[in-house]
């Protein structure tokens, strides 16, 4: 619409101006265009603000969405360990076999020594034997029979295998197989005490035979 084209608003303004005895400073077309310009500016500002808000939401929201399916794990606050409450180190056990008297002696650290009479031959090999295996019940191989009998296996309880530096293997177990063949690789513990001995010997421990 032309600036000089008369319209209803212009006519109304002129009537109001005539009544107030003051001429209007702007025509109706100018006022309308200024109003439309202000409306456009408001829309631009609103659109810009919306873009800024959406952009900020994307920056904050994308990591949240990416981690939505991940379990949130917060570090558990713990107090530094109190040395006085720490679990004590397992006590070492000294085990020794007197070949001459045929006695097995345990000297656990902090405990009273205990001794057990063994059933064994006189020619058991002396040396520092290592515990290499233990089993509460198993069959002892036939090579322990004297003379060897490949068809023979001894069912034994609380079995502890010992290995000498030479590679010779000794078997320490409960004396619940009386009368079975025995060679110098066999050390029998009284049946009533074999479980206690078994529990005190762990793989890697040393048993001194002297």
Describe the structure.
It is a single chain. The longest helix has 39 residues, at 28-66. Residues 80-91 have low confidence and may be disordered. The relative contact order is 0.12. Helix content is 30%, strand content 26%. The chain has helices at residues 8-20, 28-66, 191-200; strands spanning 93-98, 103-108, 114-117, 127-140, 154-163, 169-174, 186-189, 206-209. It has 210 residues and is an alpha+beta fold.
Sum up the structure in keywords.
210 residues; alpha+beta; 8 strands; 26% strand; single chain
List the helices and strands and how they pair.
Elements: H1 8-20, H2 28-66, E1 93-98, E2 103-108, E3 114-117, E4 127-140, E5 154-163, E6 169-174, E7 186-189, H3 191-200, E8 206-209
Parallel strand pairs: 1-8, 6-7
Antiparallel strand pairs: 1-2, 2-3, 4-5, 4-8, 5-6
């Amino acid at each position: 619409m032309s600036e000089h084209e008369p319209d209803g608003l212009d006519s109304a303004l002129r009537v109001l101006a005539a009544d107030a005895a003051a001429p209007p400073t702007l025509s109706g077309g100018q006022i309308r265009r200024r109003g439309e310009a202000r409306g456009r500016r408001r829309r631009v500002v609103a659109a810009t603000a919306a873009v800024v808000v959406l952009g900020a939401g994307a920056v904050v929201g994308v990591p949240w969405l990416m981690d939505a399916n991940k379990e949130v794990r917060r570090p558990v606050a713990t107090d530094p360990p109190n040395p006085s409450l720490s679990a004590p180190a397992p006590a070492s056990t000294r085990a020794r076999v007197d070949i001459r008297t045929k006695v097995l002696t345990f000297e656990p650290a902090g405990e009273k020594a205990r001794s057990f009479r063994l059933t064994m031959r006189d020619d058991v090999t002396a040396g520092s034997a290592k515990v290499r295996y233990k089993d509460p019940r198993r069959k002892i191989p036939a090579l322990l029979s004297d003379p060897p009998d490949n068809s023979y296996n001894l069912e034994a309880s609380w079995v502890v295998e010992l290995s000498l530096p030479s590679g010779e293997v000794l078997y320490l177990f409960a004396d619940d197989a009386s009368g079975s063949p025995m060679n110098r690789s066999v050390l029998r513990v009284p049946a009533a005490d074999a479980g206690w001995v078994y529990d005190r010997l762990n793989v890697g421990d040393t048993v001194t035979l002297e």
